[in-house]
Amino acid sequence: MEDLADAVQCAARGEATLNPRVAARAIQEVQGSRTDPTTPFDQLTDRELEILKLIANGLSNSEIVATLVVGENTVKGHVSNILSKLHLADRTPAAVMAWRGVMRQ
């Protein structure tokens, strides 16, 4: 309650308040202790990159399952992770992005 009251008073004075975890993260960013990936693909695992390349080559989930000999839910999970990490809604822009980036390597 005391922290909430302090935050309200600070806001009323036009001052900014920051959660201690957010403040610590901001300090890490400023100090450069966290490095950002150089490409969006750097945050993908090797398996996710492999699946992204298969998507870019036009394979469906069931074809990826057969190619990699894994379960359908495993592929769906990887595809979901890929889309989330690349901030995309569906696999078509992921395929285009892969052709522009990953497939050139």
CATH topology of the largest domain: Arc Repressor Mutant, subunit A
Give the low-confidence spans.
none
Distance between the termini: 55 Å
User: In the CATH hierarchy, what is the architecture of the largest domain at level 2?
Assistant: Orthogonal Bundle
- Largest sheet, strands/sense/barrel: none
Rg calculated over all Cα atoms? 21 Å
The tally of domains stands at 2
Sequence-ordered SSE layout with sheet pairings:
Layout: H1 2-12, H2 20-31, H3 46-56, H4 61-68, H5 72-85, H6 91-100
Task: Tell me what the structure shows.
By secondary structure, the chain is mainly α. It folds into 2 domains: 2-31, no CATH class; 40-104, Arc Repressor Mutant, subunit A, CATH 1.10.10. Helices cover 63% and strands 0% of the residues. It has helices at residues 2-12, 20-31, 46-56, 61-68, 72-85, 91-100. The model has no long low-confidence stretch (mean pLDDT 83).
Brief summary of the model shown:
The protein is mostly helical. The chain has helices at 2-12, 20-31, 46-56, 61-68, 72-85, 91-100.
List keywords for this structure.
mainly alpha; Arc Repressor Mutant, subunit A; 105 residues; 2 domains; elongated
